[in-house]
Amino acid sequence: MVPPNAVEDLDGVLLGRFSPAALRCVILGPNAESSVKDLCKARAEEWSVPIVQLRIGARTFKPFFTDSDLRASTWSGDDFQSIASVCGGCFEPADLSESGMCQWCSINEEAQNSAAGRSLLAISLSLGLDKGLPFEFEGMEPRGRLVSQSKPTK
Ligand SMILES: [Zn+2]
Predict the structure, then answer these.
(1) I want to staple 105 with a disulfide (CB 3.0 to 4.6 A). Which of 9, 37, 69, 89 is the partner?
(2) How far is the CA of 88 from the centre of ligand 1 (A)?
(3) What is the CA(7)–ligand 1 centre distance, in A?
(4) Segment among 33-37, 45-49, 127-131, 144-148 with least mean pLDDT
(5) Ligand 1 mean position to 92 CA, how many Å?
(6) How far away, in angstroms, is 25 Cα from ligand 1 center?
(7) Residues in the 5 Å CB sphere of ion ligand 1
(8) Burial readout 4-19 (b: 16 or more C-beta within 10 A, e: otherwise)
(9) CA of 53 to the centre of ligand 1 (A)
(10) Quick one: how many helices (H) and strands (E) in the chain?
(11) Most confident of 5-19, 34-48, 67-81
(12) What is the Å distance from ligand 1's center to 99 Cα?
């Protein structure tokens, strides 16, 4: 919270000015456009502060940050705390297998390929048997395009 006279109204966006010396780091949002990323990197370099990226992982609900070397950390309230257990494949915090990868990244290609072959639904779809099948589950409303409108896979 700042007093009203500490911010200026630029087309409805309230901006506060402060000295770059007050900055500890520049934090990029997960969906920042490349032009914004480039500007933030230039400013962080100019002001000699680290740049970190807020990330929302696919494997965890808890947001985390990565620095320029993809080291992951969380914010403790006072400072960034390194996360010891980070997947070598997706760089997300995770419980790791012996290979240093999370469960998702350590699934090998053979297992990925055979998984589709072991699913009756995947087999049906790959054979084009999806026409007219009402794909919905009890208690769930179908969303998106109808399966009968989908293009055949391969
Ligand atoms: Zn991973």
Answers:
(1) 89
(2) 6
(3) 42
(4) 144-148
(5) 6
(6) 26
(7) 87, 89-90, 102, 105
(8) eeeeeeeeeeeeeeee
(9) 18
(10) 3, 7
(11) 34-48
(12) 11
Name the token pair of 18.
């402060």
Instruction: Give the C-alpha distances (Å, rounded to integers) separating 90 from 29, 63, 96, 97, 101.
Output: 18, 14, 11, 13, 8
Cβ-defined contacts of 47-54 (< 8 Å, 24+)? 47/20, 47/21, 47/23, 49/20, 49/23, 49/24, 49/25, 50/25, 50/26, 51/25, 51/26, 51/27, 52/25, 52/26, 52/27, 52/28, 52/80, 53/27, 53/28, 54/27, 54/28, 54/29, 54/30
Both tokens of 145, joined, read: 């395009």
- Cα 82 to ligand 1 centroid, rounded to whole Å: 17
CA distances for 111 relative to 83, 95, 116, 119, angstroms: 29, 20, 9, 12
Q: What is the pLDDT of residue 43?
A: 93
Report the separation in Å between the CA atom of 123 and the middle of ligand 1, taken as the mean of its atom positions: 27
